[in-house]
Amino acid sequence: MRYHRVTVRNFRGISEARVDFPEGRLLVIEGPNEAGKSSIVEAIGLLFEFPAESSAEQVRRVRPVGRDADPEVELEFSIGRAWCRYRKVFSRRGVTELEVSGGSEAVYSGREAHDRARRLLEEGVDEALFKSLRVLQGESLAAPGALSKSQQLLKALDAAAGPDPEGEGLFERAKQEFARYYTEKQERPTGEFATARKELEEAQQQVAQLEGEVRALEAQAERVRQLEPEIAALREAVEGLEARQRELEAALEARREAEHAEELARKELEAAEAQLRQLGEEVQRRAERGREVERLAQELEALEREFADRREELEVLEAEARAKREAANAAGKQFETASTRAKTLADDLNYAQELLQAEQMERRLQAIGEAEERREAARAFLARCRVTPELLKRVEEAEQQVQRTEAQLRAVVVQVEVEGPAGARVVVDGEERPLERGLLKVEVTEERRIDLPGGFAVVVRPSQSQGLLEGRLRERREELERLLADSGAATAEEARELERRRLAARQEVEQAERTIRQQLMDLPNREDLEGRLQRTRGRIAAYRAAHAGRTLPATIEEARRAKETGDAEMQEARAAAEAAERAAREAEEALRRADAAVREIVTRVERSRGLLEQLRSEAERAERERPTAQLDQELAAARGKAALAQRKLDEVRERLAAHGDPAPELKRVVSERDTAERRLREAEREVDEARGALKHAGEGPLQARLDEARNRLAAATERAERLERKAAAARLLFRTLEKHREAAQRMYGPLLAERMAELGRRVFGEDFAVELDAELAPKRRRLNGRWLEVEQLSIGAREQLAVLHRAACAAAAARDGVPFFLDDALGWSDEQRLEEMARVLAGLAQEVQVVVLTCQPGRFAAAQPAEVVRIAGGRTEGAVDPGRGSQPELPI
Q1: Crossing angle of helices 191-384 and 556-625, rounded to 10°
Q2: Rounded CA gap, 560 and 573, in Å?
Q3: Do 330 and 581 meet the contact criterion of CB atoms below 8 Å apart?
Q4: Strand 778-783 to strand 769-772: parallel, antiparallel, or no bridges (unpaired)?
Q5: Alpha carbon distances (Å) from 837 to 372, 832, 861
Q6: Cβ neighbours of 672 (radius 10 Å)
Q7: From CA 225, how far away is CA 519, in angstroms rounded?
Q8: Residues 428-439: pLDDT tens digits?
Q9: Alpha carbons 769 and 801: distance in angstroms, whole number
Q10: Helix or strand or coil: residue 262?
Q11: Is 383 exposed, middle or buried (0-12, 13-18, 19+ CB in 10 A)?
């Protein structure tokens, strides 16, 4: 399978991109992250996997964000001898187009195009190899186990292992025989075997259909025989039910006439009873009115007695309430006097507290002044001090370097010892010096000349290392002196002392500021504290002036004791005033209740008098309108009329009970008649339909057609069984040979390993070798004479090994292979190995289509020959040779 051109529109972040796949050269697609490189590979996968109208999540998530556009993918590819152009627009309705040329020309659309493309892929492409050679971004590069199932790869390795004409011929013949009966991948019946099975199924279906028709006709004839006596019985039952219905309807009409007579008698009785009830109610009302008049007269007499008693009680309560109110007013005045004195004593306490606060603020101001003097002195020292921790550190480091250099110099200084008689003299650099105790030691820090007796002279020069150390010592002493001058100290110890004093001064500043903050408390500065003291002094002076004629407390304790005494007196006065007020209010409340009770009695008396007069007036009016004697006569007549109506109603009801109620039985008879008539119509219709079907079937040779179908079934069964036995034998032979052939092909690991080693030696050197496991996956690697398991290798080495493994598989199956995609791989490789891997991929691209995607421009510049396509902003920019410096713009 070869790709020639892919065009992607409105796919994720891609607005439009077109990529032409070169022949015999590596294709490198460059672009920044999220530019759409991986989307091109994903688009090719979706093209073959999902229908255009699919609503799968994989399809929905590739729609462009922020644009109302449908993803579109178009791929031109060749597979075998067929050249194809395959296009899809993914939307709710979907557009699918497939053009196939080469050998036979055909154009497909819709679902047919999708299915045809899937068949082309299944028939012409090894799915295991297709998926294994497409490594997308973020996917694991571990060796896929599916490669051991790749028929194209195994076939290629089989060819590389050498010819076996006899064995291969047997396998191919068995395969051809198997193909006569089954498809290779899904083992579906095909050819003559499929035709025989289909003919057998059709014959079985036809026989079953005809036998069913015969059974249906026989069942209909039997049903007609069963329904004829049932129809006769139903007709007889309907006639009997109609006669009974007429009898019951006549009885029901007679009962309705009796019910009407009963209704008239009942209404006459109700009218008589209503008149009797009305007269009785009038008699009862008159009796109740008389009793109510008597009750109201008695109640009025009792209320008048109670009113006289309550009037006397009310006068006593009025006097008591006045006395208690006067006592409460006096107690209130005493409380006001005590409150005024307590407030004055509280003001005295506040005056004493302000005196104390003024004294405390004066002490705080004094402490702040002292702290500010200490802070200013410390700040003055800090301003003069030039020592800093960094400068002191440099001084100490310079001092240590001087000391180390002096120690090194002492270790290499040349010392000349001159021995001779005690008291003898020699001349050192022109100065005569004696040999005390027969020995003179001379240190050589520079060129020295020693003149010995007898005219001999010795010239001693210091070693070269000593000279270097002396120069270094001078430089370091100068550096130390410069640093000491910067710090204002004569020695390093003095500089350290200055640093200690600087730290102490900083602590003094911090302590002073802390003291100032503590003394200021909640105030921001000293001026605010001074202002508060001034205001407090002003209030003290004003209070003294306002109370000049009175002795003020000298201390806060005296003011507090006086205030406590005044508060206690005020509380006693308040309690007495509250008690007197409660007593006054209770007396006033009792007076109010008594007054309300008297008013209530007056109201009740007036209401009872009015009601009594009203009842007496109503009784007199009723007697005038209808005297009692006349009312008694009317009541007796109404009672006689009601008794006569009751007797008449009883007679009518006796006659009605004698008729009975035919309605339930009539309802039952009508329902039974309807049911019988409905069942009769259904039975007659069923008989008519059955007779029509029997008449129609009798006109055709149904039994002859059934016999003919059974003969065809027997012939089809014999042919299908014969082909079934042949197909089973061919399948058993082919699958057995295939099983043993696959077992033999698993031994092709060394061939694939050698092809992998050929590619790897270009990267790792001539000592490189690999060993594959039974699944044809890398197991061990040899480098520099040392074998390591794959798990022991670094991430970068495992990644390089995985790419070489796939490259070897692609090379082995190059003739019938598939494109090899690598998306942002080899990210853990160093620059040298990356260049070598790029050259390997470029060489492989001469046999296999190889496409590399990368986010780093020029990363595969070592791959030659190659073609580079750049993607930026969701569009392809052009194709260039990575060996050239510029990139020309190409039209899209």
Answers
A1: 130
A2: 20
A3: no
A4: antiparallel
A5: 77, 9, 11
A6: 16
A7: 127
A8: 888 888 888 788
A9: 11
A10: helix
A11: exposed
CB atoms within 10 A of CB 519: 19
Helix (H, G, I), strand (E, B), or coil: what is residue 422? coil
Q: Of how many residues is the chain composed?
A: 892
Whether residue 151 is predicted with pLDDT greater than 70 in this model: the reply is no
For residue 586, count other CB atoms closer than 10 A to its CB.
13
Provide the pLDDT confidence category of residue 815 given band limits of 50, 70 and 90: low
- C-alpha distances (whole Å) from 137 to each of 33, 44, 217, 535, 797 are 11, 15, 70, 81, 18
Structure tokens at 433: 């010096």
Could you read off the pLDDT of 854-879 as tens digits, one per residue? Answer: 988 888 888 888 899 988 766 666 55
pTM: 0.39
What are the Cα distances from residue 299, in Å, to 222, 275, 721? 102, 36, 124
Q: Could you tell me which residues are beta bridge partners of residue 30?
A: 854, 870
* Residue 535 pLDDT > 90: yes
DSSP string of 26-74?
EEEEE--TTSSHHHHHHHHHHHHHS-TT---HHHHTTSPTTS----EEE
Token pair listed for 892: 């899209």
Q: Which contacts qualify for 552-558: CB closer than 8 Å, 24 or more apart?
A: 552/348, 552/351, 553/348, 553/349, 553/351, 553/352, 555/352, 556/349, 556/352, 556/353, 556/355, 556/356, 558/352
Radius of gyration of the chain (CA): 65
Q: Can you read off the two tokens belonging to residue 121?
A: 């892929």
CB 868 within 8 A of CB 880: yes
What confidence tens digit (pLDDT) does each residue in 596-612 have?
888 888 888 888 888 88
